[in-house]
Design brief:
By secondary structure, the chain is of the alpha/beta class. It folds into 2 domains: 2-177, Rossmann fold; 189-270, no CATH class. The protein has 9 helices and 9 strands. The protein has helices at 2-5, 27-43, 56-67, 89-94, 104-107, 112-119, 166-177, 189-198, 258-268, and strands at 49-54, 75-81, 124-130, 150-155, 204-205, 215-219, 225-230, 236-241, 247-253. The strands form 2 sheets. Strands 5-9-8-7-6 form a 5-stranded antiparallel β-sheet, with helices on one face. Strand 8 and strand 9 form a beta hairpin. Helix 2 packs across helix 3. The radius of gyration is 19 Å and the shape is elongated.
Length: 277
């Protein structure tokens, strides 16, 4: 895809990280990309930079950019394609206790705060695919979202296909025509509620298909509800729905983080709408 998007005058850098290495740990890959990027910036200090990353590639670039805020002003745009910024649910399932099972521990990490900080300075685009009403078949839609990024969802495109598809190219080219900072929406009751749930240790974005199984746990005066459900292995799921009963957010925590979720729900239960009305 990078070759498709490149102009005749572009300097294209596409690191080959090695397929086997991508199944081990992310830190060596971050160091490898950091070294390549540093050399390129030193050699071409005045050339504007456009960064793209698919899946784990986007996460690697988040980590690299966090290490080098001095590069941010040089970056014209940052595009993440099918990147589980909030943490991959399959990774959390493989490593429910977060003890570090291969790449699962790295892919299950929540990097939203990191991404949000970067998106305040660098125009950022996040692209997701939806094949089943909640995921691209590999990662959930929700995990690709974070405040400050322009978010685009493409129907019927699975995770692997998103790496190189004409529809993705078209979205990126359109974004490049006017890459601007996307302001985060003003806080309201629902967004604050979702952010509080996302901040629970171990919270991972869930697929919306399980929303229909959840039972109402809390109802607020504005009609917003929190719903809960446990699967067969007692993994605790929590969902937020609007006054029309439509799912706005879903997440789950493993066994070790259930007390933290219950504590958060206890705090939320005491909330009043107050300034949100």
């Amino acid at each position: 895809m990078a070759q498709t998007l490149a102009t005749p005058h572009s300097l294209l850098i596409v690191p080959d990280l090695g397929w086997v290495k991508t199944w081990l740990r992310i830190q060596p890959l971050i160091a490898q990309v950091e070294k390549i990027a540093s050399e390129a910036i030193d050699n071409y200090p005045h050339i504007p930079i456009r960064i793209m990353g698919h899946s784990m590639g986007g996460l690697i670039w988040l980590e690299v950019l966090q290490r080098h805020p001095e590069w941010w002003q040089k970056v014209e745009s940052f595009v993440l394609v099918a990147s589980p910024v909030g943490g991959a649910d399959l990774a959390r399932i493989l490593d429910p206790l977060g003890i570090g099972i291969g790449i699962a521990a790295d892919l299950g990490k929540n990097r939203r705060q990191m991404a949000q900080a970067i998106a305040k300075v660098i125009p950022t685009l996040a692209i997701a695919g939806d094949v089943d009403g909640g995921s691209d078949g590999t990662i959930t839609l929700e995990t690709t979202k974070f405040p400050g990024a322009k978010w685009v969802c493409l129907p019927n495109l699975p995770h692997a296909i998103l790496k190189n598809h004409p529809a993705v190219v078209e979205v990126i080219q359109e974004f490049w025509q006017n890459p601007v900072i996307t302001p985060a929406p003003p806080p309201d009751f629902t967004t604050t509620l979702i952010e509080r749930l996302q901040s629970v240790p171990g919270m991972t974005d869930a697929h919306w298909r399980d929303f229909s199984r959840a039972k109402i746990y809390l109802t607020f005066p504005n009609g917003v509800t929190i719903r809960r459900w446990k699967n067969t292995v007692q993994v605790e799921h929590v969902f937020v729905a609007n006054h029309q009963g439509e799912c706005l957010y879903g997440g789950f925590v493993g066994w070790v983080h259930i007390p933290a979720l219950l504590q958060a729900l206890g705090e939320i239960g005491k909330w009043e709408l107050g300034e949100w009305g």
